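INTERNAL AUDIT FORM
Audit reference: QA-55
Scope: verify that the stored structure record matches its stored sequence.
Auditor: D.O.
Record contents follow.
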Amino acid sequence: MQTRDLQASAKLKEIQFSVTAMELLKSQVEEVEGKIKAIRTTLLEYYNTIYTRALNYRYFSDYEKEKRLPVSLCNTFASN
């Protein structure tokens, strides 16, 4: 009888630990999702400004020369 009580107690502690760990992970996932949402919103808000300025100041061609890329980024993105 005592052995069964000890086993049940150990199992209960294990379940409580698992529930606590799941709650912690759930809160961390929600925090990360919030950060991702903020980054996405910022990117979408400023994308056109950054992209337009990059083409105007020829950042793509400078990057191509610096990295010696075989593909022309300016032509690739200008057609989109």
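Auditor finding: record pair retrieved intact. DSSP finds three helices and no strands in the chain.
Action required: none
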